[in-house]
Amino acid sequence: MTKVITVIQARYGSTRLPGKIFLPLAGKPLLVRMVERVRAAQLVGDVVVATTTEMVDDQTEALCVEQGLQCFRGSTSDLLDRHYQCGRNWKADVVLKIPSDCPLIDPRVIDRVIEAFFSQDVDY
What we know:
By secondary structure, this protein is of the alpha/beta class. The chain is about 35% helix and about 25% strand. The chain has helices spanning about 30-40, 60-65, 80-90, 105-120, and strands spanning about 5-10, 25, 30, 45-50, 70-75, 95-100. The mean pLDDT is about 95.
C-alpha cells in the first residue's frame, strides 16, 4: 500500500501578512479551517502541518498541539527540504504539498489531483 501524506506549509512569519494563519475564520484560526478542508478529501492520507524551527513558530506548533494536529518543524529557508524531511519522518511514499492560505480549497479537487497522479503509473 502506498503511504500518502499531505503537508500544509504554515509559518507565522509571512512577509505580506504576518500571523495570517492565526486570523479568525468562522470562529477558528485560518490554519485550523484549512486543515479541516484538506482532511475532508478522501485520499490525502495523514495531514501534517510543516512549520519552521524559528522561535516565532513555537506558537504555530502550540496551536497544532492544542487542536490535535500533526506538526513537523524544519528548515526556515529551504522549503523543499522541510517537505522532504517531513515525508521521511512519516515514511511517506507520496508527499502532497498544499499552502496554508487556501481556506476555500475544494477537497474534491484534491482527490481528483491524487487520482490523476496514481492513474499515470509513473515513478517520479
